Amino acid sequence: MRRAAVAFFATLLVAGTARAQEPRPSVVVADSTGKRIAFALIQVSSGIARAANDSGRLAIETAPGDSLKLTVRRMGYAPFDGMVARDTTENVYRVILSPLPQALKRIAITVPQDNRLFRNGFYARHEASRTISTPTRFFTPEDLDARPVARTSQILQGIPFKQIRHEAGQAILQGRGRGWGHRLGAGPRQPRMVGGI
Does pTM top 0.70 for this prediction? Predict the structure, then answer.
């Protein structure tokens, strides 16, 4: 009787040791081509979501079973939520994520013509003006074509750091906070410099 009891407890001890030595299963996340998806968020059943490593793998504490409920998310991919069968040969649960289609906004590319403005560096100064803090407004030929106006004062209306006032029947362009101005001539788009105002 005593020998039978010792044998029974020894069997339990060996079985428990075998279970303790069994490697932990992992969840592997990849796309349909087999490319691993790094840092996907993986939630086992209702547990806390954890991030996979840079190889798309996460070792889990759950004892190996035939299947496991997993929720997997990664930006740019459709989320997965369902049961996953265990690959017993490698002791992993494989999850395949499908990429989401990306809708790109329409991009308009304007290439300036090789004209006198281009050769004199006008467009280069136009691009450089975007990196400085001084308020600057360039009017390109494309801008003027898009705004059918007859007079220079009409072109300059709406610029926040400029003022247009009228004096003796003529439009005066004046910079706010500065002691200078332009008298806008009667001809279209032909400003003429005058003395300090």
Answer: no
* SS3 state of residue 184: strand
Nearest residue to 37 (alpha-carbon basis) of 88, 100, 89, 84: 100
* Listed residue (18, 26, 21, 20) closest to 87, CA to CA: 26
Most confident of 73-77, 160-164, 169-173: 73-77
Tokens 């990196």, residue located: 131
Provide the token pair at 133.
Answer: 């803090």
- Alpha helices by DSSP H, listed for the chain, are 2-21, 116-119, 122-128, 141-146, 152-156
Separation between Cα atoms, residue 125 and residue 127, nearest integer Å = 5
Average pLDDT of the residues in 99-108: 82
Q: Rounded to an integer, what distance in angstroms lies between the CA atom of residue 162 and that of residue 178?
A: 10
Strands (E), 64-157: 67-73, 80-87, 92-96
- As beta bridge partners, residue 36 has 30
pLDDT at 139 over 50: yes
Q: Are 93 and 25 in contact (CB under 8 A)?
A: yes
